[in-house]
Each structure stands twice: as structure tokens, then as C-alpha cells.
Amino acid sequence: MSASVQDSAPRRADAQRNRERILQAARDLVREPGELKLNAVAKACGIGQGTLYRHFPTREDLLAEVYRREVEDLVAEAPRLLEAHPPLDALAAWFDRVAAYARVKRDVFAAIEAATWRDLAAHSLGPIGEAVELLLAAGRSSGSVRPDAEARDVIVLISWLSRLDDAELDARGPRLLSILIDGLRTPRP
């Protein structure tokens, strides 16, 4: 997989806006049936294909960045939620965000080669595990999360979300995540 042309160089404001529009359009379009077409992404953004290719030389580069961004957003949400909510409520709200992440993960991984998605999954596990541990540690510290709860256990339990189709994720996801939250609560004596 090649790197994005402008990964390390500072971007002009208009170039950064184009990049953000490209990523959002790709995130929206990857959910549609069939293969994600770069010309459809460029058309959705109202930019030329040359502009798209300057940011993402290949379809795989674009999809990998969509996934990386989704992981970054998911991980960044954990400390923000802890600032605004008690630990167990923050964890529950974060699980709501995990459901959206699972949809993007499923769609991106379905659209790229197996070797690429294995690499992306391996790199995202650490940051996601750290976000889960941050939330669990706050809950353990406050006494609201059981002391034996481990990040790896939570990751194993939420990993099934990316295997569900949209209808099942909508129908069962919130209830199953609520059951998981109840299982993480400190047991009452």
C-alpha cells in the first residue's frame, strides 16, 4: 500500500478542506452496495479526479485512511466522554460510538484486500485497547466498574459488532451493548 502523497507535508486550507470532503464522501459511499469507485467519490465532492489522486493515489489508500480516521475519532472520544460523564455513562456512550465504528470497519474491510485489513486491524487494536482501558480504569477507580474487567475482554465482546449487517446492528446492538454495560458494573452485595 502506498502512502498518501501529502501525509507529512503541511496542507493549504483549501487542500485540507478537499481532503476532509474526500474522506467524508468515501465514508458515506463505502456503505453503498458494490465497489467504491474513486470517480464517484470525486463527483460527490465536486472535485476533479486529479485532486482526489493527489490526496489518495489508490482506492486502497483512501479506504485505509477512512478506517484510520474512524479509529482516531473513536479513540479521541473516550477522554472527551470521561470529562462530561461519570465513568460508566461515558463507557455506555462510547459503546454507542463503537456501533458506528463497527459499520465503517465492516464496510471498509469488505472493500479492501485481506492483507491490508489485517494490517489495519493490528494497528488499531492498540489505540482502541488504550481507550477502553482509560474508560475501565476510570470506572474501577470510581467503584462503578468491576475490578476484574479488562480491556481485552471488552474488545473481544464488542468485536462481533462489525460482523452484523445494518438491520441486525440497529435491532440488537443497543440492547447487547446495554447487557455488556450491566456485566461490567460492580456487583451489588
Automatic annotation (TrEMBL):
<keyword id="KW-0805">Transcription regulation</keyword>
<keyword id="KW-0804">Transcription</keyword>
<dbReference type="Pfam" id="PF21597">
    <property type="entry name" value="TetR_C_43"/>
</dbReference>
<dbReference type="InterPro" id="IPR001647">
    <property type="entry name" value="HTH_TetR"/>
</dbReference>
<dbReference type="InterPro" id="IPR036271">
    <property type="entry name" value="Tet_transcr_reg_TetR-rel_C_sf"/>
</dbReference>
<feature type="domain" description="HTH tetR-type">
    <location>
        <begin position="16"/>
        <end position="74"/>
    </location>
</feature>
<feature type="DNA-binding region" description="H-T-H motif">
    <location>
        <begin position="37"/>
        <end position="56"/>
    </location>
</feature>
<dbReference type="InterPro" id="IPR049445">
    <property type="entry name" value="TetR_SbtR-like_C"/>
</dbReference>
<keyword id="KW-0238">DNA-binding</keyword>
<dbReference type="GO" id="GO:0000976">
    <property type="term" value="F:transcription cis-regulatory region binding"/>
</dbReference>
<protein>
    <submittedName>
        <fullName>TetR family transcriptional regulator</fullName>
    </submittedName>
</protein>
<dbReference type="InterPro" id="IPR009057">
    <property type="entry name" value="Homeodomain-like_sf"/>
</dbReference>
<dbReference type="InterPro" id="IPR050109">
    <property type="entry name" value="HTH-type_TetR-like_transc_reg"/>
</dbReference>
<dbReference type="Pfam" id="PF00440">
    <property type="entry name" value="TetR_N"/>
</dbReference>
<dbReference type="GO" id="GO:0003700">
    <property type="term" value="F:DNA-binding transcription factor activity"/>
</dbReference>
